Structures are given as C-alpha cells and as structure tokens.
Input
Amino acid sequence: MADDEIHIWCAGLDKLVSDLPAFAGPLSESERKRADRFQFDRDRNRFIVRHGLLRMILGRYLNIEPARVTFAYESRGKPLLYGPAAMPPFHFNLSHSNGLALIAGTRQAALGVDVERVLSVPEADQIAAKFFSPREGAMLNAIPVEQKMEAFFHCWTRKEAYLKATGEGIADALPRIEVSLTPSQPARLLKINGDALAASLWTLSALAPAPGFVGALAIKAGRLKIASWRWTGNSDQN
Output
C-alpha cells in the first residue's frame, strides 16, 4: 500500500460462513467470549467472520500471522493496533450492516467507514429532527420521495464515518456534524460545530459497496487514491 492510498475491502459475511473455522481460528479469547454472547447463530457467525476477516486483512498489511494482531481500545471503544505491529502507524476501521462488512485501511491518518442497507424507515422524519441539523432536515424534505431513504442513509453514514474517524460518541455528536446528502451531489463535510473551515480539512467519500447499500469514508487528509476489493473466500476481486 502506498502512502497516498486507502484500501477498502467488502465482504458478504453469510457467504463465508461455510469456512467458519478458518475465521474463528485467529480470534483472541476475548473475541471468542464476545461471540458466545450472541443468542442467534446468524449473529454469532457474522461476528466471527468479520472479526476473523479483519485479522486476516490486517495480517497481510502488517506481514504477521492473523492471530498475532493485537488491539488496544480508545475510551469510547474504537480499536487501534497495539504492540510492535503498530509502528509505523497503520489506521483501519470496520463497519457492518445486514450481513455486509466494510474494512478500510491506510497509512495516512485515522479514518472512519460506515455502511448501511437502504431500508424504509417510517420514523425517518423524527430521527432527522433529533440527529440532523436544520439545514440537513431542509435538504431532506426537498428531495423527491423516491430518493428520500437513500438521502437519509447518505446523511447517516457520512456523519457516522466522521465520528468513527474521530472516535467520538455517536448520539451526542450527530447533530453537530453537517454533511451533504443529496444523492446527485458529491459527499462533503459542510460544518463541524458550525465551523466550515474545520470541515474543509476533511475528505468525505461516498461508497456504493453492493446493491441496496450505501456507505461513506471520512479522513482528515486531502483526497487520496481509493482502491477496493471484494473478499470472496477463494480470490480477491477488484
């Protein structure tokens, strides 16, 4: 990976469950305990696959065995690499929704990624009133009804990607972050706590990882080259 690149991996978790032991093998004891707490097999299996896959992908970039990848956690739970493998810095982030996982990595700066499946949300207006800025709410209301849910999730994923990059808590900070959301317009961070200059230091990228899903990536850096792959279990596809 070059210094000016971001790599994004996409995986359909349910398709990889047939190789579950391979993903479970590298997990730490604490990850295994977390997996065991899931009530339903589907949720447990998805957890095992995405966390095993994260270790496999990080192991490739760090040139170590997946089981030797060690994590530390920030105060709000954001995972970071820990130990000798953490130098030189390698930044990563993981997101998942409805059986689809995205893993992003770069050597440049801390980043955040988020993915959501576009579904009908009957209470979208109430959620927007609580977590969107007045400007975002006005933009959402101006969008044709057939595009409204896509715009809603564009807004949500872009806010979350930024907050995941910074490690901030989601609930308290969402209204303070203002983003573009119209489907036909580029992804942009417009304001942070009302400050457009602070927002201009960040790059937001819209992602379309799979049909019916939208995603976003946020990084405090200039626009970097994004390369993406899909993990199929047998081969990696651009």
Summary: Residues 41-62 form the longest helix (22 residues). The chain has eight helices and twelve strands.
